[in-house]
Each structure stands twice: as C-alpha cells, then as structure tokens.
Design brief:
alpha+beta; Immunoglobulin-like; five-stranded mixed β-sheet; five-stranded antiparallel β-sheet; elongated
Amino acid sequence: MRETNIIHRMIVTWLGVTLLLAQSLAHAETDTLERIEWKKVPIRLELVVGQEQRIEFPNAVKVGVPASVQPLLRTQSVNGTVYLLAHAQFDTNRLMVRELDSGRIYLFDVTSTKDGVAAHPVQIYITDDRSADNLEENVVSLEQLDYIQLTRFAAQQLYAPSRLVKDNPTVNRTPISRDSVDLLHGGSVKATPLVAWRANGLYVTAVKLTNLTPQARTLDPRDLRGAWLTASFQHHRLLPMGDEADTTVVYLISARPFEVSY
C-alpha cells in the first residue's frame, strides 16, 4: 500500500517538477559548447599544455594517436566523449577518431602550445537532409527541449503504467552502479542511483533520495554535489524517516556519465 501511495503521489505531482540547478549558472560560460560540423575536412585543434580539451561525438569512438606524440598527449574515450590533455608542446599531428558502430572516420590536426587560453568543449555533429537554412533554428529548438524530454522520459520509465511507457530509439540505457553515494551535503539523505540513459550527448540519471532523520527535509538543488546541467526533484520535501513520503527521486542531467559528474 505504501509503495502504491508513493507512486500515485509522484504521478499526481509530476506537473509541479521544476528544472534548473543554480550552480550551473556559475559554470555556463566554461561549459559552452563549440559545435563543429564534420565535412570530411580535417578539424584543427590547438591544445594548451595542462588544459584538458573535451570533444563530444554522436556515438562511441576510438582514438588513434601517432606513436611520436603518444608520450606527449593523454587521450581518453568514454561513451562518445574524448578527453585530450597535452603534457608538452608539440607541432601539428593528425589524430584519427573512428566510430565503433559505423566505422566513420574523423580527422583532427592537433597542435599543442604552452601559452594560451583553454578552448571551449567541442561537439562534432553531422547534418541530415534538412536544408541548411533551417538547421540552426532546428538545433536550437532541439537543445531547448532536450532537458525536459529526457527528464520526462526517465520519470515515465520509472513510474508510468506499463501500457503508457514507450521506447525511444534515440535514448539508450547506460550501466550505472547501484551503490549509495553522498550526493547531498549534510549526510541526512541517502542517495541511491537507480538507472541512467544517454541521448544526444547528454546523460540523465534517476537517483532515489531517502530521509535518514526524524525531521522533514526540504530539498534544494544547491545542496547537490557534482556538475549537473539540471536537477529535477519529483518532490521538493521529504517527510521524516519512516513516513510513506520519506522517499523521492531526483533526475540529474549531465554532459558526462554520472560517476564522472558526481
């Protein structure tokens, strides 16, 4: 009965869920993505020694690095995002990045300098058959809706009746540890990751929150640890431990997987 009441309460109050994480405003400038279209022409990148460069791809990729530059350049590829870190200055070298599923090859001419300002993260995209005139408008619209769509998708997967749950081929389940994490400052709320998905270079993770104290707790996104683009609480208030309303879920959207963003 308690579980049924919780589910009912979550569905009824869903329309009241608010989006936005206050701390994201402080990082908005540094997290701005530079979107670059792949046109089969090598893309030039200038790295700054000691400053990590993030490159996002439409799908999971593998990076090929020339042997001559391997000691000077650290490369990591995680779920479609590549991280480059130059340890020393070097002249232009060509990197080959291959999509694991399609086999598509991307080429980058990479240079490293000691002086300079770290570049914005880069997002590589490929246009479809839509006209170029409408592309920018469509992209902006899609980005504005992504957070809401992903959050709604996650909530429906968890709590909507099975007959109403629909699969989305653009949203893919990603592995995540179910171990509890210290997500909120103060230690009074237990946080347990439940499930995570990835779509359009974004990650959404549903985390169960349980009050561990005999006092009611109001949830505030500013109390969250981690680098989140948005945070949406199913409910903004947890009743004391033992009450049927001592548990809720927070939906976290990030540019990287949960275990990296946390």
